């Protein structure tokens, strides 16, 4: 399953994976929501050679612990990062349990245009009843119903990305034509809770289809480009990866690394005095950078990439940048994204043909054969 390189993604929402991470952050709490903060973290990740950054999100405040934090919307942060970076992929989390897929499609297509083809989408679901009230929607309390919402949402978003063919935009001054209306298409989707006709209001993304990441137990594998798989040990991750059924598979790994000031275990113990680090069923590494390099080397035989969730960004990201990625590079286990390369291309994914153009070509070929 593994390709020529292990792709590394890093989650950069807030101050880290631990709910009390802000207590060990290198900045004052009032700096968390500033543009300089998110741009700085993204720049560190890009300079280190990460393939991708992800940005968690949700309509509700993140967490109900004694350490509440705020956040700016993931798509808005992603757009800001896109303008200040040049090679790293950017994938915001956008739930589709209550959000309108038409608007999600427009936002993400715009992000791909802004980033020149470096955008992705992490699909999740909203499982808190309070989220429904925030959207003014009825609660989707049943897990199967939420899964259907996610399935339908991804289906609509993907169809809308194809509702403009690649050459639909003309921009001809001589003929005063901006669009070829024959190359815009209605998707005519009718689901259980909504109907969407289209076409989109944003031209087809540069990648054709953004890279879609998600858990294969929540979203059908056929709708995903990258499965995010979890497991508390290597055997569980390997089993989940083998069953994913997607073009690429990333393992979810939480990390608390030894730093010059304190060991990973000491840092975890310090934060646990304030809040509990929730067990999400993910592989968790607490220890040295050398041990993490060894772990990632083992994972490279069963997955195409790893999404890291650092305990505290300001403490773990420098160790990842100075010790882990250079060591992996020396072993030729990772490759730095190249300038001018789309996220799909970096991950070795083909740019998909437009479904409507492909159908028209197939119909024409059948007509010629008669």
Structural description of this entry:
It comes from Streptomyces himalayensis subsp. himalayensis. This is LLM class flavin-dependent oxidoreductase. Helix 8 crosses helix 9 (313-330). The protein contains 11 helices and 13 strands. Helices cover 36% and strands 15% of the residues. Strands 1, 2, 3, 4, 9, 10, 11, 12 and 13 form a 9-stranded parallel beta sheet that branches. It has a two-stranded antiparallel ribbon with strand order 5-6. It has helices spanning 35-48, 74-84, 101-114, 129-135, 143-161, 234-243, 264-272, 289-299, 313-330, 343-346, 355-369; strands spanning 7-11, 52-55, 89-92, 120-123, 169-172, 177-179, 189-190, 195-196, 211-214, 226-229, 248-257, 283-287, 305-310. The chain is globular. The protein is of the alpha/beta class and 370 residues long. It has one domain: TIM Barrel.
Would you spell out the secondary-structure blueprint of this structure?
Blueprint: E1 7-11, H1 35-48, E2 52-55, H2 74-84, E3 89-92, H3 101-114, E4 120-123, H4 129-135, H5 143-161, E5 169-172, E6 177-179, E7 189-190, E8 195-196, E9 211-214, E10 226-229, H6 234-243, E11 248-257, H7 264-272, E12 283-287, H8 289-299, E13 305-310, H9 313-330, H10 343-346, H11 355-369
Parallel strand pairs: 1-2, 1-13, 2-3, 4-9, 9-10, 10-11, 11-12, 11-13
Antiparallel strand pairs: 5-6, 7-8
- Kindly estimate the percentage of residues that lie in beta strands according to DSSP: 15-25%
Number of self-contained structural domains: 1
Helix content: 25-40%
Please trace the helix and strand order, writing H or E for each element.
Answer: EHEHEHEHHEEEEEEHEHEHEHHH
Q: Determine the CATH superfamily.
A: Luciferase-like domain
Overall number of strands = 13
What is the name of the CATH topology? TIM Barrel
Enumerate the spans where pLDDT stays under 50 for 5 or more consecutive residues.
none
Q: What is the 3D form?
A: globular
Domain Luciferase-like: 28-219
GO molecular function: monooxygenase activity; oxidoreductase activity, acting on paired donors, with incorporation or reduction of molecular oxygen
InterPro entries: Diverse_substr_monoxygenases, Luciferase-like_dom, Luciferase-like_sf
Protein name: LLM class flavin-dependent oxidoreductase
